[in-house]
Amino acid sequence: MTSTNYLYFIVKTKPQFPGHINAGQICYIKESIYNKKQSVVDRSPSSAKLPVFRLGSITSLDYDIEVSNMDKLSAQEAELLQALPEDEERLTWFREREALQTALGLTLGTPVIVEEGGEKLRGIIRYIGPITETQLDLISGKVFGIELQGEDRGKGHTDGSYRNTTFFACEKYSGIFAAFSRVRPVVPSSLSPSVPKHSAQTEAEGLNVGDRVTYFIDDKCRHGMVLYLQGDSVKISTDKDESGKRGGEVEVPLHEVVKGEVPAEPESMVVDSPPEEPDTEDLYTDLSVNSVVEVTLGDRNSYGIIRWIGTPLGRQEIMAGLELEEDKGVSDGTIFKERFFSCPNKRALFVKLQSCRPDSRFQSASADPCKKMPKLEETERETEHSAGKMETVPPISTEQVKHILIGRMKGIQGHCNSCYMDAALFSLFSCSSVLDSMLFKSTEPQDAPIQRTLLQDIVNPLRSKGFVEGRHIMKLRQQLQKHGYSHSFTTDEKDPEEFLTVIMHHILALDPLLKLSTGGKVQESYCYQIFLDQNRLLLPTVQQLLEHSFHTAALKLAEAPSCLILQMPRFGKKYKMFDKIIPSLELDITDLLCEGPQQCMLCGDLAELECSDCFKESLFSHTGFKIFCGKCSTQVHSHPQRRSHQPTALDIPKAYLASSKPHTLIRDKLELFAVLCIETSHYVSFIKHGPNSNDWIFFDSMADRQGESDGFNIPEVHACPEVGTYLEMSIAELANQVPRDMKGVAKRLFCDAYMYLYQSPSMCLYR
Q1: What Gene Ontology molecular function terms does this protein carry (predicted)?
Q2: Catalytic site positions
Q3: Fewer CB near the terminus (10 Å): N or C of the chain?
């Protein structure tokens, strides 16, 4: 049997007998028994009793309760109310009929606000139903499984599972199970209590309340939002009514409505003003919830996202509720004490929809994202027109990061497989000047346009405004393709090292960053790929990986580099040699240099000998080359197991040996400033922008998307102080960290690192 064979009631007043039945408890009766009692109930509605069972009772006893003490419930209402733990709370919310009816209209995928721990968190409904089962009850309490979104991720208590059963999937601590009393839709008007239930036909059509739709009147295409569905018709809140006026409502036959927004053909203007006055209607009729827009406030433009559209408080104009990028608003999503959406305080602003314009920073996107970009000749003319303006914009300092870089629509806008280039350029130039020389060095005339594009269209806007449009990256890709380095630079994904080598070596002829000494010969390169012939490391640091790789290949540094770009050991993009790699915030390269004084690893005096055999011994630490002074080397190699070792003499400058004065040995160190990571062929980057442990930011050029095939990517930069927390842990603590349980984006840094970028604090400004 199912719950449809039963009728449900809520006790609204506590009966005198039995005394343990409380107001707010839910009872049920078999429908066949109720039908037999129907005549008695009809004759004496005030005194008739029904033999009902108490929902949730551990016994199977029935109780005779007066009908006048109970109110009838639908099975769906009973499921929602039964999820509330207290009888008194259940009765209170039963009397809040509007909230109960709103909850009945919630569906999977609905954006909602959920109350949790005193906070109002944003999320999307991923599951509706019970999470507990009982043997006696025919129904269980129905709850909402919600996946938290945006900044509220990580504030939940589940990954979508409860008591070892998975009901939906999300990141750990980004899911919440909540009763309907704590959940409300982001757009209240679309789920108002008066909304009729969907018919089977409308369900089949796939329309839902709140959907943006296209409808047709007099063969004209118009747009609007579904208010409710009933039978064969749809009530729509219109962007323009049939007279061409803004706002209003219209009821349209179901077969005249299409889900989504079909582009309309241009229509004749219906205005009272002179015909030469432009029609501004098209500026906003295609805007909808989650559109990125700009508005003019005073003498400047402000940018934000539409979170609500409607006509509040009896106003006739269609209004838009915006969540602004900056604290330029007036509230947290409320107006006149009524809440329409939730956002941080001072970020909400309510304006007329006609005052909103599509965000001009993202108008480079098109239906064919890889082709319909400005022509190369046009964009090069723009750059050449301002070629004399070779101004220098310094890197973004730690103090400026929050103001310039942090937020949505920040960083470099991804476009058509450009993430490898976006992440590389952001890493190199946002907060570091180590390779700024390539922006200003003299170059061949045919390569000058590429240098100008890099400086004027990418680096300078990134550092001054915190944002680079996707069209400028496409322009750079078009220029590289025009030079013949690859016929697919504008369409296909490349490796970051391939792009950097083309730019630094083939285009700008930058001196090689890396000079390696092996067998008396010097090799030059721009990046160094770490190779290991045998793996004795389980949870390596970058320092250990570099040392072991140099030892394996018998390499030394001919000189200290100003910038060191390291590629992590991998088997292609997909297969990693290590599950986790610990970033080394400083890279000590003293022992990797082929010349210069070095310290004995045991006593700290001037080292004279190096032993490659000792490097392999498990007795010694996995970090650091094994170099000794003469005395310590004799002692170490006096052990029977090491007598066969053959230490080699270090190359020490003669002037250093000739001096009788004691010398203080200074160690050469490089500092980490960026990390590129890859997961499922998508590159992102981490930037270490300051000296503090929590001075980390994370950049994703394609963090979100507006629209589909005709839409565009939304880049995002956000702080990730959790990285510093993990870096302060011991090796043992890090080894015990389960990647999927790591907070924020830390897992991507430790588990998906592809390329590490180091710079010399003393040399990066001059080389």
Answers
A1: cysteine-type deubiquitinase activity; metal ion binding
A2: 419, 682
A3: N
